[in-house]
């Protein structure tokens, strides 16, 4: 029953468009929801929503607990679907044991966390200390909500961040993220050769942190390597909508002499052989018109940059088996009248995070592109077992009869900001099983939800 109530809450608000930076409507929904449930509620200057619920009978003397999730989502859409993420609702459906969305990302990251919080706040039969529920904005882009949250709202001993994606574990640390952007003017000349539009599509994509170590191809890297083989001039190149997703589709308009189709076909076959899990990978090519292209020098420089810059894992952890320490993802490329490239680096090592910034500076010096580093999120450092982790382990064991894993994550969590201003507060991240977030293949494993919500409820009772 609890799980169904969580899903019901998810279905009610998740159809409201709420991509990062477009949370106003869903924030207003949360305000009205709180009023309907007689809960004290406010919205801060950044759009974060904060609700308060009194302690249940017998828990009045216990310290407050914070529940926290982010209300925004990554909006990614299949190439053949007409969809406006600002105005169009996502279409949610059930497929066996999974909740999915038709042709778009589902938004269970972090709609699942929002829904679990709303259920807990709505159920007056639960036992718990006083609860402060914090719903933040723009986690998927700038983390502006968490970064600018007034520290007065973090007045608690424990914080449960409900933004986790593995049913049998919790997170107690995370990497940082560094936004790396290159911009440049380009020189265009009259095109004198046959032009072609080349598209690579149907790649798996995925989360640029959690999925970066999987054998998945980047559409940006793949298309750039093909263009290098073609020895072409580039008219346009467009790929990626969000920097924190592995790019699943890219297209370019080029001009070129010689046989193009056979080169494209040979490259496609080689790429499929290297990435057998990318079974739907497809290159398309068609003749088109292009009045201008980048001159040969700028074309060669642009292509060589994309081919040379790394997108994937740099270092694995020295301490934790099979855990990525440092990585980098080329998420967005836009080339038209000017050039714009967005990269997201992640690391749980301060030294290697600085190394990524040094490497970006070196690239800007070599290629002459303008470099900016507009945002950097802190690292949430591992501090070992504490009282909250022991509570979570005991609650999980009582609910499931299994042992809870406590791990770090190669992705940014808002806990890093909270920890930076309240280092003494104990916090963990918890959630149900999600797959392929930040992609149209995103799905929420429904059968994982009963244990997860019962586990969280039990943990609150133990606090």
Indicate the CATH topology of the largest domain.
Answer: Aminopeptidase
Give the low-confidence spans: none
Helix proportion range:
25-40%
How many strand elements? Answer: 26
**Gyration radius, in Å:** 23 Å
Could you tell me the mean pLDDT?
96
Structural class: alpha+beta
Task: State the helix count.
Answer: 11
* CATH hierarchy, class of the largest domain: Alpha Beta
Shape: elongated
Description:
The protein has 2 domains: 2-175 and 379-462, Aminopeptidase; 178-377, Alpha-Beta Plaits (2-Layer Sandwich), CATH 3.30.70. Helix content is 29%, strand content 29%. The protein has 11 helices and 26 strands. The protein has helices spanning 2-13, 24-36, 108-122, 144-147, 219-230, 261-274, 296-308, 350-367, 387-400, 415-421, 449-462; strands at 40-43, 49-53, 65-70, 92-95, 98-101, 131-136, 158-161, 169-174, 176-185, 188-190, 195-201, 206-207, 233-239, 245-246, 250-255, 282-288, 292-294, 312-316, 324-335, 338-347, 370-372, 376-377, 405-409, 426-429, 434-435, 443-445. A hairpin with a 7-residue loop joins strand 25 (434-435) and strand 26 (443-445). Helix 1 crosses helix 3.
């Amino acid at each position: 029953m609890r799980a169904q109530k969580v899903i019901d809450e998810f279905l009610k608000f998740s159809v409201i468009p709420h991509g990062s930076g477009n949370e106003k409507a869903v924030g207003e929904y949360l305000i009205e929801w709180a009023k309907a449930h007689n809960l004290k509620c406010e919205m801060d200057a950044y759009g974060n929503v904060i609700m308060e619920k009194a302690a249940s009978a017998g828990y009045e003397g216990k310290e407050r607990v914070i529940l926290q999730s982010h209300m925004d989502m990554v909006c990614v859409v299949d190439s053949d679907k007409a969809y406006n993420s600002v105005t169009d609702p996502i279409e949610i459906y059930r497929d066996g044991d999974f909740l999915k969305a038709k042709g778009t990302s589902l938004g269970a990251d972090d709609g699942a966390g929002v829904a679990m919080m709303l259920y807990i706040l709505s159920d007056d039969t639960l036992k718990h200390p006083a609860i402060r529920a914090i719903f933040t904005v723009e986690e998927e882009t700038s983390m502006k909500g968490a970064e600018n949250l007034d520290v007065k709202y973090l007045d608690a001993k424990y914080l449960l961040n409900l933004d986790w994606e593995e049913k049998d574990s919790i997170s107690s640390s995370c990497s940082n993220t560094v936004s790396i952007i290159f911009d440049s003017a380009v020189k265009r000349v009259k095109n004198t050769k046959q032009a072609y539009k080349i598209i690579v599509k149907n790649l798996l994509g995925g989360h640029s942190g959690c999925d970066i170590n999987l054998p998945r191809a980047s559409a940006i890297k793949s298309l750039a390597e093909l263009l290098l083989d073609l020895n072409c001039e580039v008219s346009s190149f467009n790929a990626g909508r969000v920097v924190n997703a592995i790019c699943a589709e890219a297209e370019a308009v080029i001009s070129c002499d010689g046989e193009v189709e056979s080169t494209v076909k040979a490259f496609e076959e080689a790429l499929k052989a290297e990435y057998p899990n990318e079974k739907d990978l497809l290159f398309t090519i068609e003749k088109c018109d292009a009045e201008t292209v980048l001159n040969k020098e700028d074309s060669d420089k642009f292509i060589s940059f994309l081919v040379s810059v790394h997108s994937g894992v740099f270092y694995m952890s020295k301490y934790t088996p099979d855990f990525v320490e440092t990585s980098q993802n080329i998420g967005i490329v836009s080339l038209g009248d000017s050039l714009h490239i967005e990269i997201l680096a992640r690391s749980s090592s301060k030294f290697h995070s600085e190394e990524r910034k040094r490497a970006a500076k070196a690239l800007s010096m070599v290629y002459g592109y303008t470099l900016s580093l507009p945002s950097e999120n802190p690292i949430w450092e591992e501090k070992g077992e504490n009282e909250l982790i022991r509570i979570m382990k005991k609650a999980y064991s009582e609910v499931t009869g299994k042992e809870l894993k406590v791990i770090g994550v190669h992705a940014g969590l808002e806990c890093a900001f909270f920890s930076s201003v309240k280092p003494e507060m104990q916090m963990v991240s918890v959630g149900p099983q999600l797959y392929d977030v930040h992609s149209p293949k995103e799905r929420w494993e429904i059968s994982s939800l009963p244990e997860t919500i019962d586990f969280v409820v039990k943990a609150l009772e133990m606090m």
